[in-house]
Amino acid sequence: MGEDTAFIVNDLQNQIGFENGLSSKFKGCKTTTTIGDKTYVIGGGNDESTLFVEVRIFYQATGNWVTPIVLGSKPNACKGLSAISLNDDRILIIKKGPTPNDCILFLEVDTWFVREQKKTRGTEVVAWSKGVMGDAEKPVVISGPSGVGKGTLISMLMNEFPSMFGFSVSHTTRAPRGVEKDGVDYHFTEQTIMDKEIKDGKFVEHASVHGNLYGTSIEAIEVVTDAGKRCILDIDVQGARSVRASSLEAILIFICPPSMKELETRLRRRRTETEEHILQRLRNAEVEMEQGKSSGIFDHILYNDNLDDCYESLKKLLGIEGAATATQISAHQGIDLPADHSVLKMDNKIIINCGTPEPEKATERIVLDVSSLKGGAPGRTRGLDVLPLTHFEMA
Ligand code: ADP
Ligand code: 5GP
User: Fold this and answer.
1) Is 380 annotated in the active site?
2) What are the residue boundaries of the Guanylate kinase-like domain, all occurrences included (predicted)?
3) How far is the CA of 207 from the centre of ligand 2 (A)?
4) Domains along the chain?
């Protein structure tokens, strides 16, 4: 492994940054990673045994410090971390200690998602995304006019495959219906609170629907994927458009009623809305149907005429025609890393030397392939692969 193609990344145990005067800014442990004229300092906390993952940026040209808006779920505290930049748009973070489901993370600093967020917010933004092995199943978005049967179809799927699918619990400012439970059907909230949380970057998407605010939080998706399940989102067409434009890489399905008359019958039979709200939802349904069928947002359109037929078609689309084939997805496999390790980058390979912070004394090596990363914030970064050691035998 030549010196010119590989370099040892900043390790947490090194007290780094003295040359930039960084050491006075953080007590405890941290790593620095320099991309262009920005140095990202990740880590911190007052106690070296438990690191709280924080991010600050040092502008080398001006000598200024900036605390960016940090989107995505902050990683859990850990005992240390290593960092290495990949393609100048994201930093790979490897946490120390036995945290297999949470040990490989990406801090996005200049991906498409982060650049868009910087434009909208006019300030420095970074975003966390958890790394997962292989191709975890894509989230499923179900859209369609109110009363078409989205909730019914989703319930059928979740009842038949409880360990396979998990529902993304949205936030809404509308009042709960009789049987709805907070935290189960929705997170019921208030406009001012939700406005602030949207500003703080906690939402993947949000939209005003039938006079109320609805939105999918990053956390709602993470709760499902962390449980090793495939995420189902029940959101309107505006939300679907935002998801389509994001890096979530979801499968988007639009559900149509057999007719507008039947849609009205279903909405009335459900007896959950006032007459005024039924009329509002029917008016909006016309627009949603037009957009849903013609906008190019959706990958599939299903007609919910006979419920059982529609459910079978939905299962077919999701590749689960028979119950026997459905098993839980191990969507967030991680690596069990020993506390002591060091990290090297060579082309698109990350070599993790285990057992010691000194690479030449490593007792085991893990080779991570990062050449086919997919997705990213605000979802997961998929496509990580652990390679056999053939080309990287211990020296
Ligand atoms: P959405 O979630 O799209 O607003 P729901 O799932 O609440 O719609 O369904 C609206 C009503 O229509 C419910 O009372 C449900 O039982 C009923 N329903 C759903 N699908 C069908 C169908 N294929 N045929 C007849 N009624 C249906
Ligand atoms: P309801 O009030 O009937 O539960 O939902 C009304 C509409 O809001 C439905 O079209 C539903 O798909 C949509 N909706 C529910 N949650 C979300 C969300 O998080 N984001 C968006 N954009 N729409 C949502």
Assistant:
1) no
2) 137-319
3) 8
4) 2-135+330-389 (no CATH), 140-317 (3.40.50.300)
